[in-house]
């Protein structure tokens, strides 16, 4: 079995990717310092797959500690790098913290890959690298606009670091630019577990509906979109997870045509915040208590993906609908509420 290191494996997308990798025959280990995640999610991974995943509670900004993981696993054949801070609003308030954490951890992982000759590297990037695009849907060739947040800038900088590293070393890399991952695993054993008040739309919706939050805010209703709220591309987290398995297979089978290749991961559809709320109300039967607030710093107006390249090259084809996304997210929230 080919062994893969998943950084941020206790996180939302990381845990779903652990499941998908295991179900497709990979051996996996995780590194996650649990500063923004809950290690209990690995119990859900075990219930789905029958495999207990080993997690190293290590801060990747500590190079010596990170090297010990690579030393303990000389048979690693690839790395999927999720570990990063990801709240847009927080990054606006604390940019230095984001630059330090997201970039130093990446540099350390890349250094270990070089030192231990692990050549297959999949990076968790983001549509935030496109900034406010002039044309939508965006393709992988769309020009990168100035980032709207320090978080987005760390993703742009990380992509450049990886591209330069791949040119100068044996590293084979894919950069997966995903749009807005939502929903939960259909087994209802794992899902999103935000710490504190959620920064993302769907957990804010579900926590308001369940009563954890008294009310939620829609940031802005005066954008140039169908209904004035921001427009985004939402993609089910299990679809996102499977793309990482396909990206690894692509590298391991040496099908890559360049040291670094980029793929958009989205549904190819744009939905406004208010449309997402209406879809949630439809599938859940709940009436959501929300108000319209001022625009939020760092928010892009409208963006959604052209996913043709991922379909043609990786063979990736999302299967979950927006209704599926809302239904699985709501089922997961209800389970959390009961536990």
Protein described:
There is one protein chain. With 339 residues, the chain is α/β, with parallel strands linked by helices. It is built from eleven helices and 13 strands. It has helices at 12-23, 41-49, 63-72, 88-93, 95-115, 150-168, 201-210, 237-252, 273-284, 308-314, 322-338; strands at residues 3-7, 27-31, 54-56, 76-81, 120-126, 172-178, 180-182, 216-219, 231-232, 234-236, 260-265, 271-272, 290-293. Helix 3 (63-72) runs parallel beside helix 5 and helix 5 packs parallel to helix 6.
Please sum up the structure shown.
The chain is α/β, with parallel strands linked by helices and 339 residues long. The protein is built from 11 helices and 13 strands.
Question: Which properties best describe this structure?
Answer:
339 residues; alpha/beta; two-stranded parallel ribbon; 11 helices; 13 strands; 41% helix; globular
Strand order of the largest sheet: 3-2-1-4-5-6-11
Percentage of residues assigned to helices: 40-55%
Radius of gyration: 19 Å
Could you tell me the number of beta strands? Answer: 13
- Based on secondary structure, the structural category is alpha/beta
How do the helices and strands line up, and which of them pair or pack?
Layout (H helix, E strand, L loop, with lengths): L2 E5 L4 H12 L3 E5 L9 H9 L4 E3 L6 H10 L3 E6 L6 H6 L1 H21 L4 E7 L23 H19 L3 E7 L1 E3 L18 H10 L5 E4 L11 E2 L1 E3 H16 L7 E6 L5 E2 H12 L5 E4 L14 H7 L7 H17 L1
Parallel strand pairs: 1-2, 1-4, 2-3, 4-5, 5-6, 6-11, 7-10, 8-13
Antiparallel strand pairs: 9-12
Helix pairs in contact: 1-2, 1-8, 3-5, 5-6, 7-11, 9-11
């Amino acid at each position: 079995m080919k062994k893969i290191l998943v950084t941020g494996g206790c996180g939302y997308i990381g845990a779903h990717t652990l499941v998908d990798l295991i179900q497709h025959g990979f051996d996996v280990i995780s590194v996650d310092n649990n500063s923004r995640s809950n290690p209990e999610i690995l119990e859900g991974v075990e219930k789905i797959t029958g495999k207990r995943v080993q997690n190293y509670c290590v801060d990747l900004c500590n190079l010596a500690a990170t090297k010990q993981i690579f030393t303990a696993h000389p048979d690693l054949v690839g790395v999927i790098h999720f570990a990063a801070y990801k709240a847009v609003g927080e990054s606006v308030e604390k940019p230095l913290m984001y630059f330090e954490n997201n970039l130093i951890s990446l540099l350390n992982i890349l250094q270990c890959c070089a030192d231990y000759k692990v050549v297959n590297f999949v990076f968790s990037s983001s549509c935030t690298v496109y900034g406010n695009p002039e044309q939508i849907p965006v393709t992988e060739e769309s020009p990168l606009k100035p980032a709207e947040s320090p978080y987005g800038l760390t993703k742009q900088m990380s992509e450049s670091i990886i591209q330069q590293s791949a040119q100068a070393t044996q590293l084979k890399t894919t950069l997966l630019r995903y749009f807005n991952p939502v929903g939960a695993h259909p087994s209802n054993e794992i899902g999103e577990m935000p710490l504190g008040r959620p920064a993302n739309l769907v957990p804010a919706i579900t926590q308001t509906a369940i009563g954890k939050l008294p009310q939620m805010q829609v940031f802005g209703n005066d954008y140039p979109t169908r209904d004035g709220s921001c427009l985004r591309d939402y993609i089910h987290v299990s679809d996102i997870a499977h793309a990482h398995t396909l990206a690894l297979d692509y590298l391991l089978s040496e099908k890559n045509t360049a040291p670094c290749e980029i793929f958009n991961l989205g549904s190819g559809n744009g939905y406004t915040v208010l449309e997402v709320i209406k879809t949630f109300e439809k599938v859940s039967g709940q009436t959501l208590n929300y108000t319209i607030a001022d625009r939020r710093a760092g928010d892009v107006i409208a963006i959604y993906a052209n996913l043709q390249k991922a379909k043609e090259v990786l063979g990736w084809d999302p299967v979950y609908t927006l209704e599926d996304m809302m239904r699985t997210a709501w089922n997961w929230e209800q389970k959390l509420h009961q536990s």
